[in-house]
Write a structure and sequence with these properties.
113 residues; alpha+beta
Length: 113
C-alpha cells in the first residue's frame, strides 16, 4: 500500500474467533456505503485487511490518525459497524503474531454495499 508520501501509515491487529474466518471474509468483502463515507470524512486514505488464520492485520493510511480515531470513535455509523463485526472477533490472540499478514480480505478501494 503506497501513501505517495501523504498521510500517516500505521498497522494494527485484531483477532478472529475460532471457526469464524470464512464467515468474516464473506461479511467483510464490502463495507456499507455510509461507513465508507464516514471513513473518508475522517481522513482515511487507504485501509487494507489481511487474514492469516485468526490474525487480522490492518494496514491504514490516514491524514491524521488521532483525528481519524476521534471522528470514528464517536460516529454512530461506525459504532453500528463495530457492533456488527464484534461477533467475529475476540479480544486476545489465539496465536503469536508472525511476519506474514496472510491473504488480502478487504481493501478500501473496493466497492461498497
Amino acid at each position: 500500500m503506497s501513501s505517495a508520501g501523504l498521510g500517516e501509515p500505521f498497522e494494527f491487529h485484531t483477532f478472529l474467533a475460532p471457526g469464524r474466518g470464512p464467515a468474516y471474509d464473506d461479511f467483510h468483502r464490502a463495507i456499507p456505503a455510509d461507513l465508507d463515507a464516514v471513513m473518508r470524512a475522517a481522513g482515511v486514505m487507504a485501509w487494507r485487511i489481511y487474514r492469516n488464520d485468526l490474525i487480522l492485520t490492518h494496514q491504514v493510511v490516514a491524514l491524521d490518525r488521532q483525528h481519524m480515531d476521534e471522528i470514528l470513535d464517536r460516529d454512530p455509523v461506525n459504532q453500528r459497524w463495530q457492533q456488527e463485526v464484534a461477533p467475529y472477533l475476540v479480544d486476545t490472540p489465539a496465536t503469536d503474531i508472525g511476519d506474514d499478514p496472510g491473504d488480502l480480505v478487504w481493501d478500501f478501494s473496493w466497492p461498497t454495499r
